C-alpha cells in the first residue's frame, strides 16, 4: 500500500452518491471548493480519534472506528442547531493498518455520513506509531440562528436528550447517534445548547460558565439501564444534547427536564443542594 494507491482508493470510497449542494470540487485538487449560500453561517469543527486514547483495536472494528470518528464532529454540528454538509478526514496510519482496514474505516464513515447527507471531500494521509484520525466537519445554519453556550438565563429550564451513562455502562463500545434533527428543532427555541461529550457535570459547568450563571440539578436523571449515578454524571461520550429553554416554553418530546438555571457564581453546579465538582473526561488529565 502506497500513498498514491491509497488516495485513489479513498477517492473511490468517498465519491458523492448524489450532487452535493454548494460543492464545486472535492477530492482531486489541492483544496476542495465550497460555494456558501449568502443566507447562512458556516460551522466548522474538528475532532481527533486516537488509538488507545479514544478506542482500542481489541474492542473496535474498523467500521466502528470510522463511525465514531465522524459521529464526534456531527454531534458538535447538532449542538449548534446546524445541518452537516461536508467532512475532511486525515489519517495517520499505524504500521498494522492495511488496505482492508482503511476500507472498513471508510465503510463506517460512509454509513454515518449517508444517514445525514454528508460528503467526504478531502483529507490527508501519513504514518505514525498509533492510528490517529482527524475529522473536520463543515455545517451550516441560517444566518444568526446558531445555538450557543452563552445564552442561558436565570429561570431557564435545563434539559438533556436521551439516556445518560449509556457509553460508560457499555465500556465506550457503542455507536453514538448524533442528534442533528433535534438540534434543528431547537433553533429559535433553546437559549443555550451544547453536546454532552465529557459528562453532564463537566459540560453543564462549561455551559453555565459561558452564560455567566449557576445551575441546579433537581430532577431525576434519565439514566441508561444499569448505569450508576457516577456514570450518568461523569461518564462522558454520550453525545446527547444539553440545552436550556425559557420556563413555560414547550420542549420537544426527546428532552427530559433535569434542573434549572439560577443566579450565582458562574459555573457553579449543584445536585440536591450540594456543589457538584466539574469532573468528567479530560484528555489532558
Separate helix tally: 7
Q: What's the level 1 CATH class of the largest domain? A: Alpha Beta
In the predicted model, the low-confidence regions spanning at least 5 consecutive residues are: none
Distance between the termini: 36 Å
Strand order of the largest sheet: 8-10-7-11-9-12-13
Provide the residue-averaged pLDDT.
90
Topology, number of strands: 13
Largest sheet: 7 strands, mixed
**Strand-residue fraction?**
25-35%
What count of domains describes the coordinates?
A: 2
Structural class: alpha+beta
- Overall form: globular
**What would CATH call the architecture of the largest domain?**
2-Layer Sandwich
Order of helices and strands: HEEEHEHEEEHHEHEHEEEE
Per CATH, the superfamily of the largest domain is PurM-like, N-terminal domain
CATH fold description of the largest domain: 60s Ribosomal Protein L30, Chain: A
Helix content: 25-40%
C-alpha Rg, in Å? 20 Å
Layout: helices, strands, pairs:
Layout: H1 3-13, E1 23-25, E2 33-34, E3 40-50, H2 62-79, E4 83-93, H3 99-116, E5 119-127, E6 132-142, E7 157-161, H4 166-169, H5 180-185, E8 192-196, H6 200-211, E9 214-217, H7 229-234, E10 240-245, E11 255-262, E12 269-271, E13 274-275
Parallel strand pairs: 4-5, 9-12
Antiparallel strand pairs: 1-2, 3-6, 4-6, 7-10, 7-11, 8-10, 9-11, 12-13
Helix pairs in contact: 1-3, 2-3
Amino acid at each position: 500500500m502506497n500513498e498514491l494507491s491509497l488516495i485513489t482508493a479513498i477517492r473511490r470510497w468517498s465519491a458523492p452518491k448524489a450532487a452535493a449542494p454548494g460543492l464545486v470540487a472535492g477530492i482531486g485538487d489541492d483544496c476542495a471548493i465550497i460555494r456558501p449560500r449568502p443566507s447562512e453561517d458556516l460551522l466548522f469543527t474538528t475532532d481527533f480519534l486516537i488509538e488507545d486514547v479514544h478506542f482500542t483495536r481489541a474492542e473496535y472494528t474498523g467500521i466502528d472506528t470510522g463511525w465514531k470518528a465522524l459521529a464526534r464532529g456531527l454531534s458538535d454540528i447538532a449542538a449548534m442547531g446546524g445541518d452537516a454538509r461536508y467532512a475532511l478526514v486525515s489519517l495517520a496510519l499505524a504500521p498494522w493498518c492495511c488496505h482492508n482496514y482503511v476500507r472498513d474505516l471508510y465503510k463506517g464513515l460512509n454509513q454515518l455520513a449517508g444517514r445525514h447527507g454528508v460528503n467526504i471531500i478531502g483529507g490527508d494521509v501519513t504514518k505514525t506509531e498509533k492510528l490517529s484520525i482527524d475529522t473536520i466537519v463543515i455545517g451550516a445554519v441560517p444566518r444568526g440562528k446558531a445555538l450557543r453556550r452563552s445564552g442561558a438565563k436565570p429561570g431557564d429550564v435545563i434539559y438533556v436528550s436521551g439516556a445518560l451513562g449509556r457509553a460508560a455502562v457499555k465500556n465506550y463500545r457503542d455507536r453514538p447517534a448524533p442528534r442533528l434533527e433535534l438540534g434543528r428543532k431547537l433553533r429559535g427555541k433553546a437559549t443555550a445548547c451544547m453536546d454532552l461529550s465529557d459528562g453532564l457535570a463537566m459540560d453543564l459547568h462549561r455551559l453555565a460558565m459561558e452564560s455567566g450563571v449557576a445551575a441546579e440539578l433537581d430532577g431525576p436523571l434519565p439514566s441508561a439501564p444499569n448505569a450508576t449515578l457516577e456514570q450518568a454524571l461523569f461518564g462522558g461520550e454520550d453525545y446527547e444534547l444539553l440545552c436550556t429553554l425559557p420556563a413555560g416554553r414547550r420542549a420537544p418530546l426527546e428532552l427530559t427536564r433535569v434542573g434549572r438555571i439560577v443566579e450565582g457564581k458562574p459555573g457553579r453546579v449543584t445536585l440536591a443542594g450540594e456543589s457538584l465538582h466539574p469532573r468528567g473526561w479530560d484528555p489532558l488529565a
